[in-house]
Amino acid sequence: MLPIKYLRNLLQNDAYSVTLRLKMTTIPRFFDKPAGSFFLLGPRGTGKTWWTQHSFPNALRLDMLDAVAFNELAAHPEKLREKLNDRPGIKTVIIDEVQKLPELLDEIHLIIEQKCGIQFVLTGSSARKLRRAGTNLLGGRAGRHTLHPYMAAELGSQFNLESALAHGLIPVIHASPAPDRALVAYNALYLREEIQMERLARNIGAFSRFMEALSFSHASVLNTTNIARECAVSRTTVTGFQEILEDLLLGYRVPVFTRRARRELAVQPKFYFFDTGIFRANRPAGSLDRPEEIEGAALEGLVAQHLRAWCDYTASTADNHTLRYWRTRSQVEVDFVIYGKMGLYALEVKNTGKVRSEDLRGLSAFGTDYPESRRFFLYRGKERLLRDGILILPCEEFLRELKPGLFPFADVFAR
Predict the structure, then answer these.
(1) Sign of the dihedral defined by the CA atoms of residues 398, 404, 406, 410, in that order
(2) How confident is the model at residue 16 (pLDDT cuts 50, 70, 90)?
(3) Mean pLDDT, all residues of the chain
(4) Is the pLDDT score of 311 beyond 60?
(5) Looking at the predicted structure, is the pLDDT value of residue 14 above 50?
(6) What is d(CA 363, CA 328) in angstroms, rounded to the nearest whole number?
(7) Domains of the chain
(8) By the 8 A CB rule, do 391 and 376 touch?
(9) What gap in Å lies between CA 242 and CA 373, rounded to an integer?
C-alpha cells in the first residue's frame, strides 16, 4: 500500500501540488459562478479549491483542514465575525471543508441574516455532518452546487477515451504523472481519513469488503442481500455503509423513470460510483472475470457521470433536468433517461463495435411509449447512423460534444 502522503501531496498546497494545480489551471471548468452565498460540494480532488482560488482571488479563505484555523474557530465560532470586522473591504469569504466544523454555520447564518453584503462560499467533500447537524443548508439561504470530475468537452484535445475508462476523470488523478498509483492512494485516503479517522464505520475491514462487493453492482440494480452475504454483515449494516458512501459523495443512485408510465416498471435504483476510475480501483479483476464485463460497466459509468454533470451544470430556475433509467418488469431496459425543459432523451450504452437489432430493443420499446423522445445508441464503433428513429453514435463523439445548456445531435431528429 502506498503512503497516504502520496495523495495528500496532490490535494494540499505543498510544492508538488502547486505543479499539478498549474496543469489544472489550463482546463477551464463549465461550472458557472453562482450569485449569493452557496455550498460547493464534491469529493476531494475534483478541483473545488482551485476553482474558488481562480474565481475569487481576493476572498478571505479559511481552511478547516488547517489545524490552527480549525481549533481557533471550533473554540470560538464568533471569531469569524471578528475576522470580518478586521477586514471591512472583504466581500467574499471561502471556508474550505466546512463539514469539519458544522457548528460554524450558525455564525454564518447570523451574518447572512444581517444582510452585510458578504458572500460565503462553503466547500465540502461530505454532506454527512452537514445533514446530521440539521443545518439544512442554512435554511435555504445558500444554494447547493456540485463540482464533478472533468467532462470530455472541458478537456478538449486532452480527452482520451481509453485513459478515461482506465483512470477516470477526477482532476487530481488526471493531472498526476502516475494515475494508477494516485487511484490506489485516493482510495486509501478516503478509507483512512474519511471513514476510519471520522469513525463513520466501526469495522473498517467490513467497509473495505463492502466497497469491493459494491463494485460488482456498479451500473447495475443494487442487491443489498447479496452484498451483505459477500461482506458477512447484516443488510442493515450494508444500508448504513451505502448511506456513508453517498454522504461522502463517492456514489449515487439513479432511480427509475416513471412519468406517465404505460407498463409495469421496476422499482429499484441503479448504483454508480461517482467516477469510473474509482470503480476500476475497487473492482477486482482475476482469471474468472471477463474483461468485457468490466469494460462495459466502466463505459456506462463514464456516460452516467457525464450526464449527471450535464444535468447539474445546465440547471437553472427554469431549466432543471433529471437523470433516470427505464426498466420494465419484463426486463426491457434503457440505460439513461434525461427529462426536463429541453426535452426527453433516452440513451443506451454498449461496449461493442457493432449494432445488433436486439441492442435497440429497449430504445424501440421506449419510443413506443414515448414517441416524442429522442433516442440515442452509444457504442464503440465509428459510424454515425439513423435507424428506425434511433441515432447511433460513437460514444466518444457524443461525450466530446456534450456541453451544459445544449444536448448534442438533438437537431438530427428535426430533419
Answers:
(1) positive
(2) very low
(3) 88
(4) yes
(5) no
(6) 12
(7) 32-146 (3.40.50.300), 152-252+271-284 (no CATH), 300-414 (3.40.1350)
(8) yes
(9) 33
